[in-house]
Amino acid sequence: MTPRRKTPTELRSHRWFGRDDLRSFAHRSRTKQAGFTAEDWSGKPVIAILNTWSDANSCHAHFRLRAEEVKRGVWQAGGFALEMPVLSVGETYMKPTTMLYRNLLAMEAEEILRANPVDGAVLMGGCDKTVPALMMGATSMNIPAIFLPAGPMLRGNWRGQVLGSGSDVWKYWAERRAGNLDECAWREMEDGIARSFGTCMTMGTASTMASAVEALGMTLPGASSMPAADSGHSHLASATGRRIVEMVWEDLKPRDIMTGDAFENAVTVAMALGGSTNAIIHLIAMAGRAGVRLDLDHFDALSRRTPFLANLRPSGQFLMEDFYYAGGLRALMTRIPDLLHQDAITANGRRIADNVEGATVSNEDVIAPRERPLNAEGGLAVLRGNLAPDGAVIKHTAMEPRLLRHTGPAVVFRDYNDLERRIDDPGLPVTADSVLVLQNAGPLGAPGMPEWGMLPIPKKLLQQGVRDMVRISDARMSGTAYGACVLHVAPESFVGGPLALVRDGDLVELDVAARRINLKVPDDEVARRRSAWKPRELPYPRGWVALYSKHVRQADKGCDFDFLEGTAPVPEPEIH
């Protein structure tokens, strides 16, 4: 049976343009002021193109052109396109962290869609936080929407070596600090590591989230793997524009697609990719907007059953360009059909099973066969214990195996400024067996939970050849980062979580296989320290950070605002 399609008078935009009243007269006349005629919009779906282009976001440098290509597709399909700039949230420049502003973009996306004569939306994002933010806002608004990923940049190059953004920065910066890399080589690397527009070409947060959104069903098939500079990316933009017009007529909305099964598909894919730890926070927040319960234990259960198959940095060897040529996400998904909900519906109106049909793996060095996985489990693990009663996470596929089970004495830094002052002090009482602990770097403590969790290894240990050690914090780390870094410790130290009570010399136990992170200190001593603990004051009297500080949830809850979670309906604006 053919599903019912909307009629022109049922379009949301009809309330703005289609009535015989004074307000509609004003709306129509001002649209004509912009150079359009009634034939351009009358009876057609109005499509908002939410564009996160900015000169301060080099990853999105191509979005001006891509927006025009999306418009072309919208016009081709009989729609009326309106480009609407929204907060860019560029990972490179915004301090202390873009995570502080993810919820601001999510709010802006939701409200700009609600306040304007919009029937459907194309969400243009890529650089890390733009992906979950746009998805969160569009899900809360819940009009037809589809996501267009920015795509990864081209491979980097330095003296014949392939470079991956982020991952190789951390690697070679360690060598620079150790005295093994001169300034000339470092400058050459700076010139060669980012060779085109697009997001990080490792399996960092940008590629992880784009892949997760494709697995959710919110992009066209194959969208997440395509390099930004490939001509196919232009074709993808126009095809996305054409498809959103049909989604409006079909009334196919985000919450129709983003079901519990769809989120399980997204988590499973992220685990098979060895993806970013940040995906856990973002997917929990996105699920909350869709009315789907997703918690840390669910992540860990899915990770335990999912093989790690994508040989991509930082957990592996290759880059996103190689992944695309090897078959991309569609090919990887054909390796794990029994782990996916094959009947989950997607933005093109077809099932996941239909969208991956015919995809093949052309390079098994990049996408491993199921019977020879890179690791029997997925790339992320959830830890619990008296140091993280509400959970912590670790990317165990990107750490030295010798540290998977480790006990060592803590070296504690009270905050990031303390870390910067002392980490390279020759007198710092630290050995390769020490456990570095960073406090007050969480959602409230930093604020914004910056990517400080890949604590630098002390210079004197780098000079001794040490390249990994256990590090624990309530911060996040870049999806391009690696090492034995325990992250997202909840509750955070700023609110009195157990991490706040760790002292120099305390023994800390990490056991990834047992999913355990414990402070080996007697209970009575922990109780004494807790009674003496005093909270820091929040130094944010006004503005966005003041609002953020009052309402942000902890890491295990996705760091969304308490008043934005859920699916409670919001009335449509009155048009008077």
Task: Describe the model.
- Helix 4 packs across helix 10, helix 9 runs parallel beside helix 13 and helix 12 packs antiparallel against helix 13.
- The chain has 3 domains: 272 residues, Rossmann fold (3-Layer(aba) Sandwich), CATH 3.40.50; 36 residues, no CATH class; 152 residues, Glucose Oxidase, domain 1.
- It has 576 residues and is α/β, with parallel strands linked by helices.
- The strands form 4 sheets. A 6-stranded mixed sheet has the order 12-11-10-9-13-14.
- It has 21 helices and 14 strands.
Question: Which terms summarize this structure?
Answer:
576 residues, Rossmann fold, Glucose Oxidase, domain 1, 3 domains, six-stranded mixed beta sheet, four-stranded parallel beta sheet, 14 strands
Based on secondary structure, the structural category is alpha/beta
- Could you say what the CATH topology of the largest domain is called? Rossmann fold
Number of DSSP strand runs: 14
CATH superfamily of the largest domain: Response regulator
Q: Any guess at the CATH architecture of the largest domain?
A: 3-Layer(aba) Sandwich
Count of distinct structural domains = 3
Can you count the helices? 21
Radius of gyration: 24 Å
Layout of SSEs?
Layout (H helix, E strand, L loop, with lengths): L13 H4 L4 H12 L4 H4 L4 E6 L11 H14 L3 E6 L13 H17 L4 E6 L4 H12 L3 E5 L6 E3 L2 E3 L3 H12 L4 H10 L12 H12 L14 H20 L3 H4 L2 H13 L5 H13 L5 H10 L14 H6 L2 H7 L17 H5 L24 E5 L2 E7 L10 E9 L2 H7 L12 E4 L20 H4 L8 E3 L11 E2 L20 E5 L4 E5 L2 H10 L10 H9 L25
Parallel strand pairs: 1-2, 1-3, 3-4, 9-10, 10-11, 11-12
Antiparallel strand pairs: 5-6, 7-8, 9-13, 13-14
Helix pairs in contact: 4-10, 5-6, 6-13, 9-12, 9-13, 12-13
